[in-house]
Amino acid sequence: MLKILKYSIYDLLRSRWSYVYFIFYLMLSFSLFFLNNDIDKAIITLMNVIVVLTPLIGTIFGVMYYYSSKEFTELLLAQPIKRSKIFMGQYIGISLSLTLSLVLGIGIPFVIYGLFKSAAVFDFTLLLVVGAFLNFIFVALAYNIALSINNKIKGFGYAILMWLTFAVIYDAVFMGLLIHYNDYPLDQFTLIATMLNPIDLSRILILLKLDASALLGYTGAFLQSFYGTSMGLIVSLSALSMWIVLPILRMRSKLKKKDF
Amino acid sequence: MKIVFLLFLLMQFSANATTFTVCKTCKINSIKKAVSLAEDGDKIIVKKGVYKEFNIQVSKAIQIIGEDYPILDGQNKSESIFAIKADNFSIEGFKFRNVGISYTKEIAAIFVSGSTNFTLSNNQLEDVFYGFIVQDCKYGLLQNNTVVGHAIKESNSGNGFHLWKCKHIRIEHNTVSGMRDGIYLEFVNKSSISHNTSFDNVRYGLHFMFSNNNEYHHNEFKANGAGVAVMFSKFIKMHHNTFHFNWGPASYGLLLKEIYDAEIVDNVFEQNTIGINIDGCNRINYKNNHFIRNGWALKFIGGCYTNVFEFNNFQHNAFDLSYNSRLNDNRFEANYWSEYSGYDLDKNGIGDVPHRPVKLFSYIVNQTPQTLVLLRSLFVDIINFSEKVSPVFTPDNLLDTKPLMKPINSIVE
Question: Distance between CA atoms of B216 and B193, rounded to whole angstroms?
Fold first, then answer.
């Protein structure tokens, strides 16, 4: 598995995309730190970008990589290697290289601007952790889709739809429900609904850490009382982990039955 | 009026004033004794030391001066340390501590009632129930006092400065923290409150009720439980104040309720949950204020008519404006909005396209507060954009027709 992992990473590093991705983040965060001196503000803007863009890029990369390396994968499958090892190797390879681009792309400007001494280090670390989680989650989801659908175009379509669902449609439905059931106590519902969407969960985790929590007023009070504690952080990080584990389990069971 | 008082003072100086000295080893070793011996116009000097006295009744025009901050310890008894009913007196340079809590009486370090022309200055108060209670008084000056409390609950704490039914009072250069309300005024008219610092109080930094024709300026209100509240008052001038870091579920920089004909000029509102909460206020001019990084810069509740907002800076607030109705009778003109995305082709510093400060999301949050959890999500950005293009839910005449391209002059200290 390690060999395949290594191969995938090399393969991705050779293709220019991870560099483009890396340079994009590098320039984005450099310009952000350059343009405003306020780190909190810069982190919020970075969060906006990361929460939307990381899942999108993870999804597209995952699907693209699966389809383009399909022939080579089939060749590997003919060898005496376990199926799960091949695919896990590829999956971890993609996720790792994406995470590397993200961490370096944002981390380098952060270090250069000498922000390690500032109080923002914890928020920043959280941002990176959340970004990494989102990469792993969405590549896993994308692999699931790609494994289930042989048609490339259809696969892409579903992958984009999946991203759209989490990024936009879910929130639209969520908001609709909140408005419609305005008269009922919605605290528990809100808490669970945010847990069920990795993008929402990441967004709220970061927002609550960046003072904006108080802005949430009464609504924020109960969110803060849950997410603000270390217990809440553990629960939400494990919720994010479940979003990685469950797709991987499905991937494995799918692999057992799939006829290549 | 002032001339009359000067004459009064002159008369006092011309009279043969005696000076009494109080110290632990002197013949007069308690303030109570000195007060009983003194006549109108006399002076009492208290030397350094700890005086465990309370309920010192003063009804004469005397000066009581502490040297090197003698300590007056109330021993947590349910009595005020000074209870004063006199004209032309002054108390300065004392350290007050340990005034007990009472649920039936209003007790304070210095309790003044029915007095005219007095000065309370340079006193330091610590762990007092109420700091100063001034009621039914005229022409008083409270300056350079420091009040420090350790209040936790509203129900068993008192106010730093508590004024009731007064006229022409000046509260200047004081610092108050950790009390219930920093400064509380009820039925106080024609008074001025300036250069004070009020922070970390459990409820309000400054609390106005039914007090007309007052002015407050150059004050700083920081991290109070619920900011500053100005209620049911007319003709108030507020300028050069700073309201900041009033964060929390119920916090605002400034709460205005039923305020008519006020001027709010040159204030700074920074990092408050709500910059100004405007509830049923009419004919107020807002000019040259800075709203920086608040949750809501302005939040309107109830009917607010003919208010004018000119030359204000709205910078990086999560919501610049929250509006509760579709009817608008307030004027927004020539403000700077950091959210403004228009252009200025003729380079005259005024944007060519009007700015709509109310976002759809702020309207939705107003209706359903829970939806605030969706703050900064992509979906919210999308609906805000579509509402901006064609307003349906937000009042369509609520716009700034002359948005400025650059922020107005930077914050003046």
Answer: 5
pLDDT tens, residue by residue, A138-164: 999 999 999 999 899 999 999 999 999
pLDDT single digits (tens) A71-98: 888 888 888 888 888 888 889 988 999 9
Higher per-residue confidence, B218 vs B392: B218
ipTM of the complex: 0.85
B251 touches chain A (CB under 8 A): yes
Q: Which residues have CB under 8 Å from B241's CB, separation 6+?
A: B216, B217, B218, B219, B220, B221, B267, B268
Rounded to the nearest 5 degrees, what angle is found at the Cα of B118, between the Cα atoms of B117 and B119? 140
- Residue of chain A with shortest Cα separation from B383: A172
Residue A111: burial class (beta carbons within 10 Å; 0-12, 13-18, 19+):
exposed
Q: Are A178 and B379 a contacting pair at CB < 8 A?
A: no
Distance, CA of B171 to CA of B183 (rounded, Å): 9
B370 in reach of chain A (CB within 8 A): yes
Q: What is the pLDDT of residue A220?
A: 64
Contact between A126 and A202 under an 8 Å Cβ cutoff? The reply is: no
Q: How far is A210 from chain B, CA to nearest CA, in Å?
A: 12
Check A182 against B367: CB less than 8 A apart.
Answer: yes
Query: CA distances (Å), B398 to each of A14, B89, B304, B336, B356, in order?
Result: 55, 54, 13, 15, 7
Considering only A104-108, B6-10, B150-154, which range has the smallest mean pLDDT? B6-10
DSSP structure string for A161-227: HHHHIIIIIHHHHHHHHHHHTTTS--HHHHHHHHHT-HHHHHHHHHHHHSSHHHHTHHHHHHHHHHH
Q: Are A62 and A159 in contact (CB under 8 A)?
A: yes
At B1 the pLDDT is 54
Q: Is the pTM for the entire model greater than 0.90?
A: no
Q: What number of helices (H) and strands (E) belong to chain B?
A: 4, 38
Q: Token match 């040259």: residue?
A: B288
User: How far does A16 lie from chain B, in Å, by closest CA?
Assistant: 28
SS3 content of chain A, % helix, strand, coil (to 5): 85, 0, 15
How high is the pLDDT of residue B8?
57
User: Phi and psi at residue B105, in whole multiples of 5°?
Assistant: -115, 155
Q: pLDDT digits over B24-51, tens only?
A: 888 898 999 999 999 999 999 999 999 9
pLDDT band at B412 (very low <50, low <70, confident <90, very high): very low
Rounded to a whole number of angstroms, the distance between the first and last alpha carbons of chain B is 33
State the smallest CA–CA distance between residue B114 and chain A in angstroms.
43
**Residues B72/B97, Cβ–Cβ less than 8 Å:** yes
> Measuring CA to CA, how many Å separate B14 from each of B8, B42, B241?
10, 12, 42
Whether A216 sits inside 8 A of B373 (CB atoms) is yes
- Judge contact between B303 and B324, C-beta under 8 A: no
Among A51, A168, A215, select the one facing B318 at the smallest CB separation: A215
